[in-house]
Amino acid sequence: MGPDAASPIYPLALTAEAPGARSGFLVRTWRVGRRRPAALAGAVVVLLFGAMALGAPWIATTDPVRTDWSQIRKAPTWAHPFGTDDLGRDGLSRVVWGARISMQAGVFSILLAIAIGVPVGLVAGFYRGALDQAIMRLTDAWLAFPFLILAIGLVTILGPSLTNATLAIGLGATPTYIRLTRGLVLSTSEEDYVHGARALGAGDVRLMARHVLPNIVSAILVQATVAVPTAIIAEAVLSFLGLGVQPPAPSWGTMLNAAQQFLESAPWMAYWPGLAIFMLALSFNLAGDGLRDLLDPRDY
Amino acid sequence: MTEFLVRRAFISAVTLVLISLIVFTGVRMIPGDPARVMAGTDADAAGLEEVREKYGLHDPIPVQYVRWIGLALRGDLGESIRTRQSVAWTVAIKLPITVELACLALLIALALAIPAGVIAAVRRNTAWDVLASAASLCGVSIPNFWLGIMLILLVSVRLGWLPASGFVPLFEDPVANVKRMLMPALVLGTALAAVLMRQTRNAMIEVLSADYIRTARSKGLAGFAVVVRHALRNALIPVVTILGLQMGALMGGAVVTESIFVLPGFGRLIVEAVFTRDYPVVQGVVLITASSYVLINLLVDISYTVLNPRIRIGGGVDGA
């Protein structure tokens, strides 16, 4: 699943060192963006969420964890546009601060998966043979654990917290990158330019780092934009189940957990955190589709 | 073909052994005395000694693994710390609920995805195609627990059409059972439908451009017959493979869905076990889920080798 690993990936404007490549990339971004407004909108919304995560202290002026017993489960007003929760906390500032937790969990877990998966996949695909077989069988076994059940299992061992949830999600996503990288390396290392570099006396490390890796970066990047929303949802699920971020920290998942008990009396508690997860995941997916177009010159 | 099947079965066997090693190691990584982990914090000295004896905890680690896997193969996965019932029994009574939920979800997903995927492919680049793709994208992006909460809010709280939670056994009152299963199944089926729709669409587009479709059309066959009898049958092969691979996501989704709709199934069992630190149950559930995933995908691959002459003659697809 994801982008088909079998498709050859061509050298890209992004990695080329020719002068003017940078402006070429910008021009291409503009052209693809104009042809695919949905992808552009997705990218903009992702950036907005990113800004919200970084600027949370300035955007949300109300303390997200300050309880106010006179404001318990109040419907949306001008003072509290998203209403208040069961402890009288401001819904809007909790949603804004929640972006920080979601982004953190989504991005760092996938970075972890890439940091482990890409080198391992690179080595497996490059050297092949028994090492490759051993790595791939282990990857198969790792993939047999349903993503969420593996994450739950790991959190059970490590204990519930944001860091451990991120770690668990990252480790759960790792085998996908091992597989993807290995597949890409298998096809790339048969390219003439790799054979050429080898004939010129380039060592294994140089071949991998300078000739193979730059040509598979874009496919990995595209896979990452599809994986981040999955990771964001996974964090929300773990927190929703009580296995991720612990209260009173404002995570969209824990907010929905609290909201579930007050569906009849305070439905607004359930609207916004869920809508935020949905919007962020949708935008990442839209932007990812656009990025695939942008990085794949065949379509261009 | 036999060679392919043997190779495929061998790889699955290796995967199963590795899965058991991962689970065994995982449980050993839980901080504290392994006997205490397996017997629970309430166990007395005699109880701890009994567990040490059963799993041979005085022996070297490899011996312990062999003993543990031997017991597991005979269906002995230990006993729940919380209820003192055997893990195998606990799972066996919870499993039918989850299987029913998964089957209903699968039915809903197929009923939505196949027609939508076919229409999107046949009417490619029309409003229908865009609509189906947008729906699919939303289906992948929507967190299923939020969808569940919103459905409860709309269907149960506002409209009062269906009960929000609770469970009635199928054989006690089938109508009441299905009424309570409908919303959870829809929630669980949505993400699956989104993935399947995309696969159906892509596979159909590829098949529809094949020569035999042109032949069928030029023979004068009606468009509908060509699409259903010639194209769809061939397009469904990759869809079935994806279906097997999606079983894991379905299991994961069941955990969340059962928690929201308070269904006493397999998924809820694991969450409760995690909260009560009922490690034998967590271990058993994780082991059973991963093993069944491997076995289901082995069966999918075998059945599709048998059904598809191209693979049978060609000697099989590479990899696992």
List the helices and strands and how they pair.
The complex is a heterodimer of chains A (about 300) and B (about 325).
Chain A: H1 21-35, H2 37-54, H3 56-59, H4 91-127, H5 129-144, H6 147-158, H7 162-188, H8 192-199, H9 204-240, H10 252-259, H11 268-295
Helix pairs in contact in A: 1-2, 2-4, 2-11, 4-5, 4-7, 4-9, 4-11, 5-7, 6-7, 7-9, 8-9, 9-10, 9-11, 10-11
Chain B: H1 2-28, H2 34-39, H3 45-55, H4 61-73, H5 87-122, H6 127-141, H7 144-158, H8 174-208, H9 211-218, H10 223-245, H11 247-260, H12 266-275, H13 279-307, H14 309-314
Helix pairs in contact in B: 1-13, 5-6, 5-8, 5-13, 6-8, 7-8, 7-11, 8-10, 8-11, 9-10, 10-13, 11-12, 12-13
List keywords for this structure.
heterodimer, A: 300 residues, mainly alpha, MetI-like fold, 11 helices, disordered N terminus, B: 320 residues, 2 domains, 14 helices, disordered C terminus
Count the domains of chain B. Answer: 2
- Per DSSP E runs of 2 or more residues, the count of β-strands of chain B stands at 0
CATH-derived topology of the largest domain in chain B = MetI-like fold
Q: What is the percentage of strand-forming residues of chain A?
A: under 5%
Biggest sheet architecture of chain A? none
Q: Percentage of helical residues of chain A?
A: over 70%
User: Span between N and C termini of chain A?
Assistant: 23 Å
| Beta content of chain B | under 5%
Summarize this structure briefly.
Chain A has 300 residues and is mainly alpha-helical. Chain A has helices at residues 21-35, 37-54, 56-59, 91-127, 129-144, 147-158, 162-188, 192-199, 204-240, 252-259, 268-295.
